Amino acid sequence: MQAESRILKLDNHLINQIAAGEVVENPASALKEIIENSIDAECTHLSIDLEAGGKTLIRVADNGKGLIENDLPLVFERHATSKIQSLQDLENNFHLGFRGEALAAISSVSQIEFATRHHQSLHGSSIDANGQITSKAMNVGTTVTIKDLFFNTVARQKYLKTDSTEYKKCLQVITSYMLAHPQIGFRVTHNSKLIYKLEPQDVLDRIAAVKGEQFADQLVKVNYLDEQIKLSGFICKPQAAVAKMPIQQIFVNKRPINAKNFNHAILQSYGSWLFSPNKPQFILYFEIDPKTVDMNIHPRKLEAKFFLESKIYGILRQVVKKTLESHSLTPSVAKSDSLAKFVPGFQPETNTESQISYPSTSNSEYRVYSNHQSHGLQNFGLVSKPHQSIPRQSFSQQKHPEYIEMDNAPISINQPVPNAELIENPHSENDLRAICQIKNSYIIAEGKDDIFIVDQHAAHERVWYEILKNNANSKQPQSQPLLVSESFNLDLSHLETLNKCKDTLAKLGFEFTVSDNQITVKAVPTKLNKIGIQELFTNILEDIEQNHEFSNLNELEDIVINYTACRTAIKFGQSLQLSEMQKLLDDMQAISHKKYTCPHGRPALIKLGMRDLEKLFKRIH
Predict the structure, then answer these.
(1) Residue 594 in contact with residue 323, Cβ under 8 Å?
(2) Are 322 and 315 in contact (CB under 8 A)?
């Protein structure tokens, strides 16, 4: 008796339903595929209607080129596409959709109608899931109507979330393509309620319309260009960073993608501008030769493989860092809603710069000095005029910095970007004069046109960080021998940690030897000789053990420098003489950038302008 054959060829309908499991996960994924087809058709306006979060209705109408009637029988066929015909086309593809799978998959799990009118046709035509073609009066373009998604696959329906949750997912898809294609107008409704009505507009205006004016006002423009990569877009000022649900969007050739590695590069670029656990916000656009990026690695094309990934990573780190350094980032008290705490009835300005918490003034102790001498601080970048909010004017009318250009040589993340000068340098000159100390913690200083409140520990921590960082980057670190070497014992865990970071400590200017469980310190970085050596070493090693997650030696070096700076800085609550306050302000003068935060990202300095004081006291309006 012959055995029964067990291998069967599946019918096309079942094949399409299986493919739908990969391509169509929920209403949002179906909506994404239809939007991409409309954009590929070179539309200038998109109308999107949803009902029940897209479960019962998804309708996308565009004014693109449309199809001729003879093409309709192939619309719901698998691997039928007008976008590629050869491997060369695939490698040079700029289209968002190209596999020819989406409509076939969607048609197998929904009631679908595809109506279209070619721009050279007098009337339109439509086809349903059964292949029935009829004539239709309609405008030029295409309208895809999807009803009752997963009506014939009950198991898939059970995995759908509530209408509200599915609607949010759809909205995320829609807003992503709104940002990726600001040249396209969008009209969006949900349950017959108008949600968006946007005309074609410039990038920044579109960001403001989608993400809000307040978010757009916190952005700094980024530009970079070479023969292989063009980068444009916006990063947020550090004070606009958030701990939860940051806006982080990257578009590659006008396609939204998930790129965690690039997100990490941007986070690393902010470094000590951010206070953990805050994360930067950004909207960035890459234009890359399609031959160097593979969009065909994910069923829904949400991820990509970059052949220039290491170069892009390095470019992001350096360009973002250079952009931040070129802007004045001092937080301004004047823009805070907290001013309302000072004056009853005070109405804060819109477009909030930052939310500053004010220390209580009850029972505050002030130590005021007289007979001040003026101290010149010619290059104190942090006391410049605040970076102006980007106006809601036409984006093309704004003055942009030139692109950062570099050659095609491979770039290291630790190597400066060649020719990476930005035209804009908003730092201005100011004279700072120490006035008093509050609660032995904050220094009040007077500038040319503003008043500054300085966190003495954070400011001194920044000064020490820069000193130690310069030592680490120097071929000959500046050390100061101790008059008497200091020896002390370390436990086994500390000795193991010390072995990991001994080279880094040596780069900072520490000289020591280790014998068994005893360490002998012979020299320390210059200016560091007035501290408890044993306490410093023990604290640094304990800090490193608690924060041991570092992926390379550069990160370890930064951890050691951060903790050393923190342990050696002036303490919060430490009484200072006026000369010591002024010395701290003078030391900050020598730092070329990032003076407004400590290495951990806490604000070191905030500003209150004289004009804002006059507004508070109702002298001006």
Answers:
(1) no
(2) no
Using CB atoms within 10 A of its CB, is residue 523 exposed (0-12), middle (13-18) or buried (19+)?
A: middle
Domain 424-612, what fold?
A: formyl-coa transferase, domain 3 (3.30.1540)
Token reading at 472: 């680490």
Residue 254 Rama label (left phi>0; alpha psi -120 to 50; beta): left
d(CA 453, CA 460): 14
Contact 90, 84 (CB under 8 A): yes
In angstroms, the first-to-last Cα distance of the chain is 100
Give per-residue pLDDT as tens, 190-241: 999 999 999 999 999 999 999 999 999 999 999 999 988 999 999 999 888 9
CB 323 within 8 A of CB 596: no
Q: Summarize pLDDT for 292-349 with one digit per residue, the tens.
A: 887 666 555 567 788 888 899 999 988 998 898 787 666 665 544 444 444 444 444 4
3-state secondary structure 445-483: EECCCEEEEEEHHHHHHHHHHHHHHHHHHCCCCCEEEEE
Distance CA 281, CA 388 (A): 18
The CA distances from residue 102 to 20, 29, 37, 38, 302, in Å, are: 8, 10, 10, 13, 14
- Closest of 494, 493, 498, 496 to residue 513, by C-alpha: 498
Would you place residue 287 in the very low, low, confident or very high pLDDT band (cuts 50, 70, 90)?
very high
- The residues spanned by each domain of the chain are 12-201, 205-325, 424-612
Domain 12-201 has CATH 3.40.50.11270: no
- Kindly report the backbone phi and psi dihedral angles of residue 590, in degrees, each rounded to the nearest multiple of 5, phi listed first: -75, -10
Instruction: Return the CA Rg of the chain.
Output: 30
CB of 422 within 8 A of CB of 387?
no
**For the structural domain made of 205-325, what CATH number should be given?**
3.30.230.10
Q: Identity (one letter) of the amino acid at 113?
A: E
DSSP letters spanning 39-67:
HHTT-SEEEEEEEGGGTSEEEEEE-S---
What DSSP letter does each residue of 577-598 carry, written as one string? -HHHHHHHHHHHHT--S-TTB-
